[in-house]
Amino acid sequence: xxxxxxxLLAFGANLWAMLxxxxxxxxxxxxxxxxxxxxxxxxxxxxxxxxxKIIGYMQGRIGPNRVGPKGLLQPFADVIKLLLKEIVIPxxxxxxxxxxxxxxxxxxxxxxWAVIPIFPGFAIANIDAGLLYVLALTSLGVYGVILAGxxxxxxxxxxxxxxxxxxxxxxxxxMGFALVGVLMAGGSLNLGKIIEAQSxxxxxxxxxPLFPLFLVYFISGVAETNRAPFDVAEGESEIVAGFHVxxxxxxxxxxxxxxxxxxxxxxxxxxxxxxxxxHSFFSGPWFAVLDQTPLAFLREPGFFWLAxxxxxxxxxxxxxxxxxxxxxxxxxxRLGWKVFLPITIVWIFVEGVMAWSGIGPWST
Amino acid sequence: xxxxxxxxxxxxxxxxxxxxVVTARNPVHxxxxxxxxxxxSAILWLLLEAEFLAMVLxxxxxxxxxxxxxxxxxxxxxxxxxxxxxxxxxxxxxxxIAAIMFMELGFVxxxxxxxxxxxxxxxxxxxxxxxxxxxxAVLYTEHVYAFELAAFILLxxxxxxxVLTMRRRPGLKxxxxxxxxxxxxxDRVRIVKMEAEKD
Amino acid sequence: xxxxxxxxxLCVVLVVDLFVSDRNRDLTFSLALIVLIGTxxxxxxxxxxGQVLTFGGSFVSDPLAQLLKIFSIAAVFVSFxxxxxYLKQRNIFKGExxxxxxxALLGIMVMISAYSMMTMYLGxxxxxxxxxxxxxxxxxxxxxGEAAMKYFILGAIASGTLLYGISFIYGVTGSLQIGEISAxxxxxxxxxxxxxxxxxxxxxxxxxxFxxxxxxxxxxxxxHGAPTSVTLFVGTAPKLAAIALAVRILVEALxxxxxxxxxxxxxxxVLSLAVGNIVAIAQTNIKRMLAYSTIGHVGFxxxxxxxxxxxxxxxxxxxxxxxxLMAAGAFGMVILxxxxxxxxxxxxxxxxxxxxxxxxxxMMLLLMVSMIGVPPLAGFxxxxxxxxxxxxxxxxxxxxxxxxxxxxxxxxxxxxxxLMYFDDAEGEAGAPVAGGWxxxxxxxxxxxxxxxxxxxxxxxxEMCARALxx
Lengths: 364, 199, 470
Prior knowledge:
Number of strands of chain C: 2
Number of domains of chain C: 2
Largest interface: B-C, 24 and 38 residues
Distance between the termini of chain B: 98 Å
Strand content of chain B: under 5%
Structural class of chain C: mainly alpha
Oligomer: heterotrimer
Shape of chain B: elongated
Helix content of chain B: 55-70%
């Protein structure tokens, strides 16, 4: 029995050695990507569940409770339902673009995960221009929405797409400027190094010296993902369902998946940029007493902390949706161009002064 | 080897996309082909270790410029077939210019060095080499004058665009946020004492 | 650096204009003038006797730059003065006009002291962008929109051509910096064919900016379509930038390969002389007529370069300065005539001016006669020195052609004079010209300046000589 396994292992090692290094590298990378994608998709599934539960409780309802214990299997039921439904393609639509659009929403949302540092010292692609990569890919997400709106050949969809395009372009600028502030504070474009620059406790995380940018970034992130209260692109009470009004079945599921993957991504990015990523909440000198106690492990950085902080922001997303009324279109534009943009620019100046006089993250 | 495969695949896609930009009948399709060619050339730049330029190309052109472009193209009701007649009329002249340009490009490519010393193939940099940093260093020292000038040109473009498009239309309704924020309860709510109705 | 002051100043004007109500626009106007005066003062005091390079060799400060800068500031100043009443009557008296004007001036000054192809191109773009916007400034008028569009498209093509040519020159010499290009070319052993290609493209770009035939198509339409005050602007200061461009590229960078560009330039010059002077005869609109006369004058300026000698370039410089003085006066006259609210840009509007307002008719007479090139006015000396330089360097035939076309050109200038003095005004157009005191003074000073420069041309010529000797 043991010999049998040993032979198999030896054979496997031989096979592995026979492969050209390029293929080896490809396999290793794929093995890194696959779990991450699966985890993200699972997160999306349960995020929808929690969304319905949390909003339900906020509104004095119970939420899904039929499929599985406490309704925990509800997301899987939903997925199966969506996958089995027929994809209806409107007669006068642009067939190829209609089908490509959902993919274009999903792909950037998943591809951005490549540079997110999951735990200390690890990201699938630890590239030096990580921040730029994030910006570039998040800016691609808008195409799926625009194309869906146009290819559908319906006035509601087109209206939704137009709103979404204007909104995303407006908020992307504020977002980019907020990240310029992070870049100045972190001194690097590499997300791992940005997190390392925030080491040394809660007070060293960038949310404090960059507080306005932190707020701007997160709110712009909400706007970028077309979530309430910025969901004019869907605006179900005005334009039915906006850009995805004609989508059904698996194509709709892709949009759904893309939107929630984006939400998780924005939460992760906010944590990485402003809340110290995988740094522990207890890592600062204030909690040095914990070193002597059995709780010392709490001071270790790790994936757990990233996940915990992300959960906080995910909760905020859901909370917003349950609480705020939808913004009017012109108010969205005003907020983006006339409020956020000046705030970020002014704060970058302030940051320059801070760096020059050695306050905040530049003190050492 | 792998780099070569990447290069030729991407180059092929790029050429196909570029041809698509010109030949697509639907302007939206042409714009999409243009986006594809931008993205492919960005990846080609990545192969050349120009990651800053590649990312900025995607960020600026694909992420912002082409979005607005698509926006406009979708709004315009362009007559798809209208341009045909004019195409044949101007084709000979356009062809002539294209031929001249092509000859010149060929000339540059075939004569390669033009009597100048040829640069050696650059050595690839280490993984931690940041060309963003290098670019910044050069831009803010050696080329600071040109850089600032470019910034001023952009400022000018903003001013000019606003001058040419902004007009105060009569009867336009706007929301004055400061007025709304200044409102106090006393301005809106009047508490009226009323006698409770009998019976 | 005067440019820094100008850049800061124009930002101040831009911001102040934001808080000024429409009735107090004069504040913006005077602020713009103050910025101009300050810039001129700084340019005047920070001059250098020799050549000083900064910013990695992309900026040069020398007597030529100083001279051209001061004259372009003066030209912008005068055009601002002329523009005030004109804009007010058309309800486009806005602060942005002056901001754009200052931007254009900044571009012009950058071009003038550019010592690298890159900064030169950036300056050119800045100037052109500001001019496009200024031409389209009167949005109610479809003609000016059309003119701006034409200028924009052709200008973009010209910029592209210039860049293409610059890239060839960079390929041949391995540098964008003027001094290094010149050094590389004198070192020899160049691939002449590709240099020639690059040169041809650069020349097309320069010819476009000057408005030389066959790249002149935009000029009459732009002059005609733009609001007259903008025409005045476009017709004056940018010409100084164009000559700076020509001197820097052709003489300073590519001076050692003069045998390559001189024939091309000769063709451009002769064609410009011919087309400009002959087509001008057929015009009934004075702005178009002046546009074609500009093309003719440009021919003369280019001939100065063709001469290839030091004296030739000097004469071209002198010619340009004199020309912008005359053009400012002539377009100022059109603005003055248009003071009653309608655009008096037909030639017929000048009928009987001699009886209606003898003083201004006399001023116009001076300007027209100077444009013909009659002594003792400034235009005469300008032409005379260009011709002398040509003959001295052995280009007798071009000189003869130039004289011939000047004689043909005299015809349409004389027609304006005939209309003013020997024809009667028609109908209600018989009123004397009415303009503000500011316009009247500036115009008179302008025209008398032409006369003064004609009587005493030595000073300016000496300045030009000094500017180029450095």
